UniProtKB/TrEMBL annotation:
Record-given protein name: Arginine deiminase
Lineage per the UniProt record: Bacteria, Bacillati, Bacillota, Bacilli, Bacillales
Primary location recorded for the protein, binned into one broad class: cytoplasm
Keywords: Arginine metabolism, Cytoplasm, Hydrolase
Entry's Gene Ontology BP terms: L-arginine deiminase pathway
Length: 435
């Protein structure tokens, strides 16, 4: 009898009837993200490492930083961030550790290094063999730190260098550029339902980052069963996780931004709709293409069933915006697109809500909202419905959240904020409980 009841609940869990159709809602695999706000069970983060110490004034702009963080301080702040999640029961996994575990397999490691050297164009100034031998001379976890942190030309001894171009000095100090943005695990990949979107990053400085989740998903024992792929990094069109928000079991919001293209959104929509998971609609929200508003989540995040943060500057006069609702079309492989202009009305429509509250960054004050948005005042990470982690420096926005009944857990942020990303950017949720 017990087995029959269990099977019955399992069946209910897997299926939902929407307009007469059965849609797949699989919460039993290693990945399960059907909302922005469900209790955060498991998350992937990256502790800032010496990649941030390989930043110099000359490379800041290209590597997408505005200042050089002080390593011990940024690590301490990051530890406070991860502790804030652990205290609420979240299991915190580290990207660097998952990658090292993945690369314990020698065949996978060899393939990985070869691809990394190609994608880094490192073989233009160092022979593939020299670099492979150098990186392989370290235990795997140190090799991962090197790959992420950068390999300086000066650290490979002269005896290992056999070609003229390896021996001659030039002004570029690195064979492998550091990847200081890795602590923003949100962007290179995004779990949607029981599958994953491995993203094509827009900026050259971040292109290689999505390789890591690609290898982890395909080869780490935790994910060894087949994980559906909704988007692949071989796509020509850029898409970044900061633009991908899972509003509920049927609806995804995606920012059309400086980093995410409409072509990529349509590609993702076609893949998702063809596989018939529970998702039946994507809301594409255009935001200004600027450095400060680089992703949708820097100006808009979900904090509760019917409450969102917003940076008022993304709305035009009378609150007008360009919003498109994308749904499966009549014909296979075609989508249906409808235009909307108001965010609140669109959210009410797609989430079937009577009321929606937008909480303005910096309380809507011209100076406070610009200042706090710059330091990710709108970039909250929901760890349960109505419970968010935020940066402590954004005290005006935090006060507004509390006034709206949200529980706010503040983390220190002097150094973390120098990379221009907040708590949502620093987290890649892989499991959330149902709301
Ligand atoms: N989702 C996010 O907004 N992530 C922050 C990324 C900051 C990083 N320095 C970048 O420019 O890509």
């Amino acid at each position: 009898m017990k087995t029959i009841i269990t099977l019955f609940y399992f069946y209910i869990e897997l299926t939902r009837t929407i307009e007469g159709g059965l849609l797949y809602l699989d919460r039993n695999g290693p990945l399960s993200i059907y909302s922005e706000i469900g209790n955060l069970e498991k998350v992937i983060v990256k502790r800032p490492g010496y990649e941030v110490e390989n930043l110099t004034p000359d490379t800041l702009k290209r590597l997408l930083f505005d200042d050089i963080p002080y390593l011990p301080a940024i690590q301490k702040e990051h530890d406070a961030f991860t502790d804030s999640m652990r205290k609420r029961g979240t299991e915190v996994l580290y990207l660097e550790q998952l990658l090292a575990e993945t690369l314990e397999n020698p065949a996978v490691r060899y393939k990985f290094l070869d691809q990394l050297i190609t994608e880094s164009k490192a073989d233009l100034c160092c022979s593939r063999q020299t670099l492979t031998e150098y990186l392989s001379s370290f235990p795997v976890s140190e090799m991962v730190d090197k790959v992420m942190g950068g390999v300086r030309k000066s650290e490979i001894s002269e005896e290992r260098k056999t070609n003229l171009y390896e021996l001659m000095e030039d002004h570029q100090p690195f064979y492998l550029d550091p990847m200081p943005n890795l602590y923003f695990t949100r962007d290179p990949a995004c779990v949607i339902g029981n599958g994953i979107s491995i993203n094509t990053m827009a900026e050259p400085a971040r292109k290689r980052e999505s390789m890591f989740m690609d290898y982890i998903i395909k080869h780490h024992p935790m994910f060894k069963e087949d994980v559906p792929s909704w988007f692949d990094r071989t796509s020509r069109f850029s898409l970044e996780g900061g633009d991908q928000l899972i509003l509920n079991e049927e609806t995804i919001a995606i920012g059309v931004s400086a980093r995410t293209t409409p072509q990529a959104i349509e590609e993702l929509a076609n893949n998702l709709f063809a596989s018939r998971p529970s998702f039946t609609r994507i809301v594409a929200i255009e935001i200004p293409k600027s450095r400060a508003f680089m992703h949708l989540d820097t100006v808009f995040t979900m904090v509760d069933k019917d409450q969102f943060t917003i940076h008022p500057a993304i709305q035009g006069p009378d609150g007008r915006m360009r919003i498109y609702i994308i749904e499966p079309g009549e014909e296979k492989g075609k989508v249906m697109i409808q235009e909307r202009h108001h965010l609140i009305d669109t959210l009410k429509e797609v989430l079937e809500l009577g009321e929606v509250n937008l909480i303005p960054c910096g309380g809507g004050d011209e100076i406070a909202s610009a200042r706090e948005q710059w330091n990710d005042g709108s970039n909250t990470l929901a760890i349960a419905p109505g419970v968010v982690v935020t940066y402590n420096r954004n005290y005006v926005s935090n006060r507004c959240l509390r006034e709206a009944g949200i529980e706010v857990i503040e983390v220190p942020s002097s150094e973390l904020s120098r990379g221009r990303g907040g708590p949502r950017c620093m987290s890649m949720p892989i499991r959330r409980s149902p709301v």
